[in-house]
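Lab notebook page, bench 4
Experiment: in silico fold of construct C2
Operator: M.H.
Input chain length: 306 residues
Purpose: comparison with the prior construct
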Amino acid sequence: RSLVLAMLVASFAFSFTMASLIMLGFSTGLAAPLGAIASSSAPVLVFGRDRDGSLKGGILLYVTSAGTAVSLLIWIIALAKIDLFGNGEVAAWERITRPVLGTIILVAIGLFWGWMLDRFCSAIGSPSTIVLLILGMLFIGYVVSKDLVGDPLILGVACGLFVGNRSKRAERITGSTESVSRMALILLFGLFGAQINLKALFTSSSILWPPAIIYILAMVGGKAAGAVIGLRLLKIKDIRPLYLLSGVSCQAIVTSSLLIATQPRLAGTQYRQDIIAVATLGIILGSLVFPAVMGSETSGLKAVKA
């Protein structure tokens, strides 16, 4: 059921976003991979659950089940497509294999970090120390990912997968991350993971703002539509609309991070500044506006109670 939901959410987000970009004048060759990136951020509706229905994982770890595999696959394909679309000086096979190898290496490092975090937490008593340890890993991940084709958030996904599914101390770890202000953690993780450039947002032409807003709304609307249809098809009746919309909107942070990680590959094209502006605005909206409007109780992982 998780895989069905993941595929529906991804396909609707891709369709909505690609169609919106084409209507705004983007070429099909660029609208397709950007739509794929919009659909590849891990769907919030496929978080692993224990038998009692409780969620596995915490906000900082982005723990998912079937959706993670779908996300990483779409992410790799989208990167390869953008590389083929962009710089012609690098051989086509290298542009395809580099994202694949980079992602595999980052996933392996993330799983190792999950194991290390589990070991460290057996000797750590303070929740704030656990949070600092995770943030320290994030800083190291930024340095590591700079030399690879990927994004620091992939490390978080892989680390979260291990903690959520293999660690005996998962409850303690995730409880520590959620004991700190949710909005502060989401904003910090999103801004840092995306290698944010606020200057680009405010120096870009105002003509970029409508495409940025439409891109984000198309992505969020597509994911929400796919999720609702999937839940109906699976005969899950207890749908919480506010939880659903808030959870999906928070994924704008992940999508925006992937966009900013992608924009150096479009150097020399007219779209680079557009992508930076879209991604920056996405992080701001995803981190602050949507959760603030709907209240902190509906933000984060509480997307649906099924």
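Observations: Residues 92-121 form the longest helix (30 residues). DSSP finds twelve helices and no strands in the chain.
Next step: discuss at group meeting.
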